[in-house]
Design goal:
The protein is of the alpha+beta class and about 375 residues long. The chain has two domains: about 230 residues, P-loop containing nucleotide triphosphate hydrolases (Rossmann fold, 3-Layer(aba) Sandwich), CATH 3.40.50; about 120 residues, RNA polymerase II/Efflux pump adaptor protein, barrel-sandwich hybrid domain (OB fold (Dihydrolipoamide Acetyltransferase, E2P), Beta Barrel). The strands form four sheets. The chain has a six-stranded mixed β-sheet, sandwiched between helices. A five-stranded antiparallel β-sheet has the order 13-12-11-14-20. A hairpin with a 2-residue loop joins strand 1 and strand 2. It binds adenosine-5'-triphosphate (ATP) and magnesium ion. The site of magnesium ion has 2 residues, from helix 1.
């Protein structure tokens, strides 16, 4: 049995099936994220894990103990919320000391524990300040310290960075990563921000409409999405509809991509001749050529419609028949003799047959 297990969890609010048969396991010390759009049920799952909401079905286990029906204070789980929920009338030290003090630990020991936490969150000098007089990022670190001082077996974090501006969010992500490395506590992290989930997590569960669509490492989810939703929610992609016309061998198949023609594609999901599929190709998997490329690359001819310079990369939209193909080119990948295409140029958009993900077609 894994350190933490959620089995077939269900939750209804009236008719609304908010959590639909959610199951996952988390290893000890792992950072596991629940990622999905607003309203998909992430907070509801977290509240059921914390004991603040009763499931309508399913079981929850933590460290070899079933906790499904235990009250929150018996679960050895702490939660960090988006809005920090610090006590405004207490100093930073007293906020952090709150848990151990109420559980009757001796004052000298509490002071030592608070010092240790202030060290971990690197706010040693702010102990005597009041919450009103510190920044958002500092409040967030204090909320984390106040949870971690209780030495929970599991720390739940619900969109902990959502209230911070972009720069601070990026800094706090690194801080969270460092704090996690230092304390080694198991984290379940809820976010709707794919960048946050990708950079912090060991594994991610992608949710849509109350259901978990895929669980995997950030790279697995990005490189090998299992559904159309996962492919489009994590990163950008281009979708093409098509039909399998021929299985070339055990690995490759030929797809008639509507309006474009027949192209070979890697077929790890074992689609059969006649199956309708959606072909997903990420923008950075494409290359743009000013001349027709060689035979080993799939390619089609088009015209550059839009260009957006983004610093480290440039984004192109190339019109190919009914499609507007989105291509991202990293400048450092271009050779010196590469001529940047410009608006209206005739170009060839090319891709390798391995850089294609075949998904079940919605039609
Ligand atoms: N107490 C409640 N009573 C009725 N419906 C609720 C309640 N709490 C949540 N819901 C509904 O359940 C669904 C899932 O809500 P939840 O808060 O879990 O979503 P979320 O994924 O955390 O979204 P967000 O990213 O916006 O925080 C939503 O449709 C929400 O309106
Ligand atoms: Mg939420």
């Amino acid at each position: 049995m894994d350190f933490f297990e959620l089995g077939n969890l269900q939750k209804y609010f009236g008719e609304n099936h908010v959590v639909d048969d959610a199951s996952f396991c988390v290893k000890r010390g792992e950072v596991f994220s629940l990622l999905g759009p607003s309203g998909c049920g992430k907070t509801t799952i977290l509240r059921m894990i914390g004991g603040f909401e009763e499931p309508d079905g399913g079981k929850i286990f933590l460290d070899n103990e079933e906790i499904t029906n235990l009250p929150p204070n018996k679960r050895k789980i702490n939660t960090v919320f988006q809005n920090y929920a610090l006590f405004p009338h207490m100093s930073v030290r007293d906020n952090i000391a709150f848990g151990p003090r109420t559980s009757g630990i001796k004052e000298a020991e509490v002071e030592k524990m608070v010092d240790e936490m202030l060290e971990i969150i690197r706010l040693k000098d702010l102990g005597d300040r009041m919450p009103a007089n510190i920044s958002g990022g500092q409040k967030q670190r204090i909320a984390i310290a106040r949870a971690l001082i209780n030495k929970p077996k599991l720390l739940l974090l619900d969109e902990p960075l959502a209230a911070l501006d972009l720069k601070l969010r990026q800094y706090m992500l690194l801080e969270l990563d460092r704090i996690h490395d230092e304390v080694g506590t198991t984290f379940i992290y809820v976010t709707h921000d794919q960048g946050e989930a990708m950079s912090l997590s060991d594994r991610i569960a992608v949710m849509n409409n109350g259901k978990i669509e895929q669980i995997g490492t950030p790279a697995e989810i990005y490189e090998n999405p299992k559904t159309r939703f996962v492919a489009s929610f994590i990163g950008d992609t281009n979708f093409f509809e098509g039909t399998v016309t021929e299985n070339i061998d055990r690995e490759y198949t030929k797809i008639d991509m509507v309006g474009l023609g027949e192209y070979p594609a890697y077929n790890d999901k074992k689609f059969e001749k006649g199956d309708r599929v959606t072909v997903s190709i990420r923008p950075e998997k494409f290359s743009i050529f000013m001349k027709e490329p060689g035979d080993n690359l799939n390619n089609c001819e088009g015209v550059v419609e839009d260009i957006v310079y983004q610093g480290a990369q440039t984004r192109y939209w190339v019109r190919v028949k009914d499609y507007r193909i989105n291509v991202v080119m990293q400048h450092n990948r271009c050779s010196l003799d590469f001529k940047q295409p410009t608006w209206g140029d005739k170009v060839w958009v090319a891709w390798h047959r391995d850089d294609v993900t075949l998904l079940e077609s919605p039609h």
